[in-house]
Write a structure and sequence with these properties.
With 214 residues, this protein is α/β, with parallel strands linked by helices. It has one domain: TIM Barrel, CATH 3.20.20.10. Helices cover 42% and strands 15% of the residues.
């Protein structure tokens, strides 16, 4: 077994353990390998090991790496997990299968204008941090209504808890917001807290370091 396959097996086992503790089906959780700043060789090792969902945070970096990889592995799914600039939407819509950072009306308008807009998660600013993207809690209900009336399919909610604070309460809060607004998808959890996120309802976790570094 290669090092990449060993890391992948470990993360999948942790997801399965957490899901079963929460009485959930592990197959309901999508593992997204965060491949930003990783080489094509590092990424391909994970693909060969069986990983199929990958996340990038910059459109240009993704354009530099992924067309060649997807030509070799057409069943790979690509997720935009970073903040997306409106002027990059046309390229992003053509490249990514899902957007995880829809957080403002101008971005929604740009996505809606794309020939085939990908589904999008609405990013919520749970910690009300000025430096972080995301829809404010007070504006969430109205923004979700606008998304639902648009050509962009609502994939769910996404959030990144404030750095340095226990993530569990924020994951639980996002789960409650999703329930309150009749949303099923929850993109939350990273390398340091994905097990907690799975136990609290995550349907997609974004894992980088645990998959790419020994």
């Amino acid at each position: 077994m290669t090092a990449a396959a060993t890391r992948l097996a470990h993360v999948r086992a942790e997801i399965t353990r957490a899901a079963r503790l929460a009485r959930r089906d592990p197959l309901d959780v999508t593992l997204i390998a965060v491949s930003k700043r990783r080489t094509a060789e590092e990424i391909e090792a994970l693909i060969v090991a069986g990983q199929r969902d990958f996340g990038e945070s910059r459109v240009q970096e993704a354009l530099d790496k992924w067309p060649a990889l997807r030509a070799l592995y057409p069943d790979v799914r690509l997720h935009m997990i970073g903040r997306l600039q409106s002027n990059k939407v046309a390229e992003a819509a053509a490249l990514f299968d899902t957007i995880h950072s829809l957080d403002r009306s101008s971005l929604l308008d740009a996505l809606a204008a794309a020939p085939h807009p990908p589904p999008a998660y609405v990013q919520v600013n749970l910690g009300e941090e000025e430096q972080k993207g995301g829809v404010a809690l007070a504006d969430l209900e109205a923004f979700l209504a606008v998304v639902r009336a648009s050509p962009v399919a609502l994939a769910g909610l996404m959030a990144i808890p404030p750095l340095g604070l226990e993530p569990g309460p924020f994951f639980a809060f996002l789960y409650e917001l999703a329930r309150r607004h009749d949303v099923t998808g929850l993109s939350m959890g990273m390398s340091g807290d994905y097990s907690t996120a799975v136990m609290l309802g995550a349907t997609a976790v974004r894992v980088g370091t645990a998959l790419f570094e020994d």
